[in-house]
Specification:
Blueprint: H1 2-36, H2 41-44, H3 61-64, H4 70-80, E1 86-91, E2 94-99, H5 102-111, H6 140-150, H7 156-161, H8 163-184, H9 190-207, H10 220-229, H11 233-244, H12 246-252, H13 259-279, H14 286-299, H15 310-341, H16 343-359
Antiparallel strand pairs: 1-2
Helix pairs in contact: 8-9, 9-15, 10-13, 11-12, 13-15, 14-15
Length: 368
């Protein structure tokens, strides 16, 4: 009896193990098929394409894992297909077309722009990400309406009026640099210094705020602004979830930014708009355009075809603030780095600037 029981137990374990192996093999085969089912899209259409290297991740495995910046990834693909007007690639399972030819780029961005308004970037609702629904991430009619409201701020005439404010921030920057270099007796972190400078410039020119980030090491705007772009493991996981499934990201309610950063900027921009309205302050700047947009779109609902919320206005204030200080400081940092590497060009630039200042009596005028 014992022998029969042992034999039955052995047969049961074998059957169970085979069922387990079969299930795992079937699941693996189905998962592989699902993760690679779209990888023939460009091949079937005769489009030159980058062969996917990793199931599910397509061509962006290195970007998804944070081992390669997306700019380097796109640059690598562009160089590999130099001379082709376009090249197919895969972001996860989704086919993407990378346009390389300048004529086609011109058509997409200018000639046929009406057909390419969306940036293809997913955003959650205002509850999960109240700062995420800025102009860059808006879609369709909503994007078009908001763009019409904000575009007049960036005309040549408006930008010329900002010269005095930019000059004042520049003078403060030079005073601080002149004081810091002898005090430290060594090099200074240019990236951080220019980040403070660009924070002050965008604050005063666009929002009428005297942030004093250049002089104040404890500036709340500077600290929270840096936190937006600070790489972290949390940011890597957030981007990975978005790449795998935007629906999954919505389900688990992952925020784009740390909660304390969201609360700070929501309060700062909301309070600024409220203060101006309550005291009747009017300035010809971006904040005034946002206040007018709020009056038209949120209060009076002049565009009944689309719905705008209070958070949409604040999100655009935040998006333009973040874009204003980060892009400027990054571009200037790289410029100074390249000039430091190429002394002859640095000397030539300095000579031209000094000669132009002398020509204009030492003043940086509109003709500078």
């Amino acid at each position: 009896m014992t022998t029969v029981s042992a034999a039955m137990q052995l047969l049961f374990e074998l059957a169970t193990s085979w069922w387990t192996v079969g299930f795992l093999a079937t699941f693996t085969a189905l998962a592989y098929h699902w993760s690679t089912a779209t990888f023939g899209y460009w091949r079937d259409r005769g489009v030159p394409y980058v062969r996917p290297t990793v199931p599910l991740f397509g061509n962006i495995g290195s970007r998804a894992l944070g081992t390669e910046h997306q700019i380097r990834m796109f640059g690598r693909i562009y160089d590999a297909f130099r001379g082709h007007p376009y090249v197919g690639m895969y972001q996860m399972r989704t086919p993407y077309l990378l346009v390389c030819d300048r004529t086609l780029v011109n058509r997409v961005l200018i000639g046929d722009f009406a057909h390419f308004t969306d940036h293809g970037i997913h955003t959650d609702g205002p509850e999960e990400n109240p700062l995420a629904n800025g102009l860059f991430k808006m879609r369709g009619a909503k994007w078009k309406v908001m763009r019409q409201k904000l575009s007049p701020v960036f005309t040549a005439g408006k930008l010329r009026h900002m010269r005095g404010q930019v000059a004042a921030c520049s003078e403060q920057l030079m005073r601080n640099v002149a004081a810091d270099v002898p005090a430290t007796g060594g090099p200074i972190e240019v990236r951080d210094v220019l980040g403070k400078y660009s924070t002050d410039v965008i604050g005063t020119c666009a929002f009428g705020l005297q942030l004093n980030a250049i002089s104040d090491e404890q500036s709340e705007f500077r600290r929270n602004g840096k936190a937006v772009f600070q790489p972290s493991f949390r940011m890597l996981i957030k981007d990975l979830i978005w790449l795998i499934s935007p629906a999954l990201r919505r389900a688990i309610r992952v925020s784009d930014y740390p909660q304390e950063v969201v609360q700070f900027f929501m309060a700062a921009f909301t309070d600024t708009m409220r203060y101006r309205q309550e005291h009747g302050l009017v300035r010809d700047d971006l904040m005034q355009s946002l206040i007018q947009a709020r009056t038209d779109l949120v209060v009076n609902k002049t565009e009944p075809s689309v719905t705008f919320l209070e958070t949409d206005i604040v999100a655009n204030a935040f998006a333009l603030f973040a874009a204003g200080f980060e892009t400027v400081s990054t571009a200037m940092s790289f410029c100074l780095y390249e000039l430091a590497l190429k002394k002859p060009i640095q000397d030539k630039v300095r000579e031209e600037m000094n000669a132009t200042k002398i020509k204009h009596s030492g003043e940086i005028t509109m003709n500078f």
